[in-house]
Design goal:
Keywords: Cell membrane, Membrane, Transmembrane, Transmembrane helix. This protein is α/β, with parallel strands linked by helices and 336 residues long. 40% of the residues lie in helices and 24% in strands.
């Protein structure tokens, strides 16, 4: 317990501990004093003093002085102000409001990514969420229609839970890029953040939805939203699982058709940037690039609190002092 106490404390005034040198000096003085007294002891009889006469009182004769030294040591250490330290960091600043807009159409199950495009997109987006400490992030999914899966929040665990729960087939199939972007823009419409961002990820061409992509782009521009677009898919053909007539799942190679012209237009006209990711590593690099482009203003304040821990030493000093007093006036009391 004593060792644990001294391991957990720092001393505010460590220079006071130099006074502990008094302890061995007093011990040396006490030893010299009693050694000289023993050397001048006169015996009035020729009989030798039996060692049997040295009872327990004789053995305890020096114990009160030891207790006094312990009391002094505790007082000195208490005066050095032992403290425990608690360090805390407060993170504050101005974050970015971000909507992650993910295509969940059937083609996102293509296996040119590991294990497929959708799972890779979810995993990389979740890691991106972890890097954005002060940002509010929301999630929108789209295929033939769009849906807000998670509104803007700073709760990273909620965001990631929603991301990992995304499955293809949740919505009507298709690729409604305009609807996805419009829903994302609507979520950012009342945002007070100075920087509002949509990260729109798709692997196809717009072929559905009630809002044309150009209209959604104009809505985003009017609100002041920066759109980063990501086209996912390898060049040429990619293996996609499809359901055969007998209900079994077979792999079928389908051509990768990404409307890069549209995605580039949306990004450029809103102040964002278009990226093409052809594998997992490429997608990681895309999100890393977006992370660099959209920096939050973060202030980290270090707070250090101290708690005084002198009380155990004061209690110990009082204990040793009281024990000495009790011994001197009871069992070690000298009678005239």
């Amino acid at each position: 317990m004593i060792t644990r106490y001294f391991e957990s404390v720092d001393f505010a005034w460590p220079w006071v501990m130099s006074l502990l040198v008094i302890i061995p000096l007093l011990g040396w003085w006490y030893w010299k004093k009693h050694s000289s007294l023993a050397g001048t002891l006169l015996v009035s009889t020729t009989q030798s003093i039996s060692t049997n006469n040295r009872g327990w009182k004789t053995r305890l004769a020096h114990f009160p002085f030891v207790l006094r030294l312990l009391t002094l040591a505790c007082v000195i250490m208490a005066l050095a102000r032992p403290q425990t330290r608690f360090d805390e960091e407060q993170v504050s600043g101005e974050g970015v409001d971000i909507i992650i807009c993910i295509d969940v159409s059937g083609s996102m199950l293509a296996q040119d990514f590991t294990p497929n495009r959708l799972e890779a997109a979810k995993e990389v987006a979740a890691r991106f969420v972890d890097t954005r400490k002060t940002d509010r992030i929301g999630v929108v999914i789209f295929s033939g229609e769009s849906f807000t899966l998670c509104p803007l929040t700073t709760d990273k665990s909620v965001i990631k839970t929603q991301l990992y729960g995304i499955q293809s087939g949740l919505l009507e199939d298709g690729t409604a890029i305009g609807s996805g972007l419009a829903t994302s823009a609507d979520r950012l419409r009342v945002s007070k953040a100075k920087s509002k961002v949509v990260i729109l990820l798709t692997d196809g061409e717009n072929n559905g939805g009630q809002i044309p992509p150009v209209t959604a782009k104009e809505i985003a521009k009017k609100i002041g939203i920066k759109v980063y677009t990501i086209g996912v898919g390898t060049e040429g053909y990619a293996p996609i699982p499809v359901q055969a007539s007998d209900g079994s799942i077979v792999m079928q190679r389908e051509k990768v058709n990404i409307d890069e012209k549209l995605l580039t237009q949306i990004a450029n006209e809103t102040g964002g940037k278009y990226f093409r990711a052809q594998d997992n590593e490429g997608l990681e690099q895309v999100y890393a690039e977006i992370d660099k482009l959209e920096k939050s203003t973060i202030e980290v304040t270090a707070i250090r609190r101290y708690t005084e821990r002198f009380l155990p030493l004061v209690i110990a000093a009082l204990f040793f002092l009281m024990l000495e007093w009790v011994l001197r006036f009871t069992v070690l009391k000298k009678f005239p």
